[in-house]
Amino acid sequence: xxxxxxxxxxxxxxxxxxxxxxxxxxxxxxxxxxxxxxxxxxxxxxxxxxxxxxxxxxxxxxxxxxxxxxxxxxxxxxxxxxxxxxxxxxxxxxxxxxxxxxxxxx
Length: 106
Description:
Order of helices and strands: EEHHHEE
Strand order of the largest sheet: 1-2-3-4
Shape: elongated
């Protein structure tokens, strides 16, 4: 299921990175919820892929702590002008860290 998010498992020495790609129909919060659900489904189906637990925790932390009103407002400004917006969640939520970077592409 394509939810507009891509997860790249980096080599062991680098933390996981999750990319969420909102559009005018689906905001970053919706994309994060969809990705959380897809990740949870993989775990519950017995998928043993490396990094799924960390990915789920990072998404959970993002969903609990992010200021989605601000993120929507900032991204919609660019989306309505036809630009692509990407939210990147780097780092490890296991330490309670939350870092979000918004990248705008023409």
